[in-house]
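Notes from hallway chat w/ T.B., transcribed later so I don't forget. T.B. wanted the structure written out for a chain they're using in a teaching module, and asked if we could keep both sequence and structure tokens in one place. Agreed to drop them here.
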Amino acid sequence: MQPHPNVQAVQRALDDAGARNGSGEASLVRLLPEAVHTAAAAAEALGVAVGAIANSLVFDADDAPLLVLTSGAHRVDTAGLAATLGVTHLRRATPEFVKRHTGQVIGGVAPAGHPAPLRTVVDTALAGYDEVWAAGGVPRAVFPTTYAELLRITAGTPAEVA
């Protein structure tokens, strides 16, 4: 069975970037038996700490998409992040906004594989883990990587987001 086109796009983006996991091997998208819609569910399915899950959250930042890769251990302080980024209005994006800018649905938004690059912020809390797991384009797809790799493959900005 052929993987979903979003999974293929994410794997292509990872391959093109030479993305690596915590062991220095190529990052490969893995399909879980079931969809994981929360960081807790993903952590349980993978047998890792919830903080090692890199949640991909898309925000509407003054009408432009902003991807925030945050540790599953906490929530984004939108007011604080808006002030840090110099954004007037920072709010959770609608499902339609997310799909339009990422080509992916909420629950499966990956850090890569979008139609165009997104401004990205990477939570510094993820640096505390040797390996982190991110969504792979659909709700049951994930891939292993590292904090440094997330910064590199997304051209992201490190920030405290909680």
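Follow-up for T.B.: The CA atoms of residues 41 and 47 lie 10 Å apart. Might be a good example for the class.
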